[in-house]
Amino acid sequence: MTEEPQNLPEGEAPHVRPTSLRRRIQLGDGPQLSYSKADFEARLGVSSGRLTAVNRQFSFAVAVCVATGFYAVLWFLRVSVPAARTLCDLFFERGWTQQATVFFTSWAFVILVFKRWKLAVQARAFEVGIPPRGSGVVIDEGTSTKLLERLYQSVDDPRKFALLGRAERSLHLAAHGLPANEVRACLKQLAEADDDAVQRSFNLLGGIVWVIPVLGFVGTVLGLGQAVGGFGATLQSVKEIAEVKNSLIGVTQGLSTAFDTTLLALLAAILVQMWNTFQFNKEQEFMAEVADFCEEYIAERVDYLGEK
User: Fold this and answer.
1) What's the number of CA atoms in the CB half-sphere (13 Å) around residue 218?
2) 3-class DSSP state for residue 155?
3) Which residue from 71, 113, 114 is spatially nearest to 96, judged by alpha carbons?
4) Secondary structure string (H, E, C) spanning 205-233
5) Which of 101, 165, 192, 282 is deepest in the core (most CB within 10 A)?
6) Which pLDDT score is estimated for 65?
7) Cα 146 from Cα 186, distance rounded (Å)
8) Is the bond leading into 131 cis (omega within 30 degrees of zero)?
9) Cβ contact 180:305 at 8 Å
10) Are 132 and 5 in contact (CB under 8 A)?
11) Torsion over CA of 199, 204, 207 and 211, rounded to 10 degrees?
């Protein structure tokens, strides 16, 4: 936790263009908060999305590995543990829709895990202490320039963070002497853009939640078609009632098998939707916390300056 500056130097600040501050800062041992090191996608050299958005291609590749590993474990249990064979057959003997359901469920879980990690990275921006919480510093042209210098010393890329991106933009405006109403308008626009980015980051998950139960229904329809088709062929060829009875037994067993696909898909959809809702609420709460911080420690301090 960075010690918050209690008293910024008074008097006229040096004439420094805010847009050139980052190039002039000597970081020394490195910034306190480095997005390129904190974000796992950035560490792997993968282009990361805005805020908590996940790289789709990367998450797709990871989901393929997760689904493959899941089936490898099932195959081992199927071969080595006879008691688990019935459960394993639910995934191996029900057609391609079961494999597709497992993959899309894995993809959703991978995205949700990644989003949780990214939200934790975003929350670390509060540790930087810019603007300072308890110092009562009024934001004017002089103090905003000083705060920008400290921001660029503390963070390698403030615009990767919802909180620090808003702080950077608003401090730029204050450093140029823009009035409080323009700073407030800028904060409002940035908040709307961030909220929209969070909403869009859940679009793929919403599509997956829709696809999973549909795959279950498709598997059921395919199973029903095969069972009814087999029964029809039996009726055309049999001559004894006993043979018809045996065929009906096979049809009912086929129907039971067909409905297994829908059951698995619905259970998977419930799990994904519950986790998706929980994560969405967490991110909404975080964005509200960022908005409250900006209102209390940026907008109100700029307003106070305007009243003077």
Assistant:
1) 13
2) strand
3) 71
4) HHHHHHHHHHHHHHHHHHHHHHHHHHHHH
5) 101
6) 96
7) 20
8) yes
9) yes
10) yes
11) -150
Please state, as a whole number, how many other Cβ atoms lie within 10 Å of the Cβ of residue 76: 12
Indicate the domain borders of the chain.
45-128+138-307
Distance CA 70, CA 68 (A): 5
pLDDT at res. 242: 59
- Residue type, position 206, single letter: G
What would the DSSP string read from start to end of 3-48?
PPPS-PPPSPPP---GGGHHHH---TT--SB-HHHHSHHHHTTPPP
Residue 161 CB contacts under 8 Å (≥ 6 apart), including other chains: 33, 35, 122, 125, 155
Question: What stretches in the chain show pLDDT beneath 50?
Answer: 1-29, 306-308
User: Residues 140, 183: contact at Cβ < 8 Å?
Assistant: no
Contact (CB, 8 A) for 216 and 102: no
Q: Which residue has the tokens 């919403």?
A: 206
Other C-beta atoms closer than 10 Å to the C-beta of 308 total 6
